[in-house]
Design brief:
Elements (H helix, E strand, L loop, with lengths): L3 E2 L27 E2 L2 H12 L1 H8 L6 H8 L4 E3 L14 E3 L2 E3 L3 E3 L12 H11 L4 E3 L7 H7 L5 E5 L5 H13 L5 E4 L9 H6 L16 H8 L1 H8 L7 H7 L6 E6 L2 H9 L4 E4 L17 H8 L4 E5 L5 H9 L4 E4 L1 H33 L12 E3 L10
Parallel strand pairs: 6-13, 7-8, 8-9, 9-10, 10-11, 11-12, 12-13
Antiparallel strand pairs: 1-2, 3-14, 4-5
Helix pairs in contact: 1-2, 1-14, 4-5, 4-14, 8-9, 11-12, 13-14
Length: about 400
Amino acid sequence: MRLVPAHPASTDDTGHNPVTGEPHAAGGTPLAIDLSLEDLEREARHVIGEMAYAYYAGGAEDERLLEENVTAWAHWQLHPKVLAGISAVDLGTTLLGTAVSSPVAIAPTAIQGLAHVDGEVATARGAAARGALMVLSSLATCSLEEVAAGAPGAPRWMQVYILRDRARTVDLAQRAAAHGYGALVLTVDAPVAGLRLRELRGGVHLPHDLALPNLAGDSTESAHEGGFMAVVTREFEPALTPDDIGWLAGLTSLPVVVKGVQRADDAVRCVDAGAAALVVSNHGARQLSDAPPTADILCEVVDAVAGRAEVYVDGGLRRAPDVVKALALGARAVLVGRPSLWALAAGGADGVASLLQWYESELRRTMALCGAATVSQLERSLVRRAPGWSLDHGT
């Protein structure tokens, strides 16, 4: 993976460009970083092989939502302000009170041991190097204790599912609280497994040299024998209700973030039940192929919540302008999934750190061009619906 300053740029007294925030030599143009996510994905595919690639890259059914998640962000345009007097851009923000260096966080993605020998520990170290939040999947191939030890003091949250055997969820939540995880991220959009045809046809399964140490019981055996969809079918509680948000919140002192919200009325029910934050998400297009892309539903969730909880979003965010659009539409942060996997596969911890550095540099550039010096200045007047697109009809 290349991460190359393309041009020199002017510096402040610290040797950093005041807009991009990155170190560089003296000169006159903003720092540019050469990174192609398409090239990165191709390199990762070569490294990890076809079975792992089918697991990471695949979506539900005909996979139409995979592309729609990405292209829907283009249905919004940035509407920049000029003469804003910006000499520096600050990306710093807080997520449930935790300070982070930028509003780009690492989404919970499962089975990272398929991408790199150090798996989730490498991702944690890469995120920590840039001061970014990482959300660890409960279906990780490294234990939550190993990840905590690998990046001590770094901001991290724990993603959880409520299992049929609730004692196992209790154990996971209490372990997370004891090892410095700052929130529990409850995924609620998997009452059953989506029909992931690419996984079925590719024979995706957990290799016998990997395990699922965060889930006690038979999860590892199920994933070895029947693939990851078998874990969902056999182990996940299918009949969740808003009461389960309060139940999970009562297990520890950690706030609960509800991930997988796609409707305004569900958002209100989650907040009423005690959710501290929501993630607008369609599970990376892996559950229901005919669901709407997240770019099209973010506004209605933000408006329904009306400031009562923080709102984050994932799904198809690939470029810095996508991130700026999401923040202007009301998200406090975005979660990046597949790009972080490609970076992990291609470069380990350094690859993840470099990906985050690229997002930071290009976020500063995009915000400066939009007339916003801080994340809090990204508001809805800076975006408009692209001509020809309607929130009601999509055309």
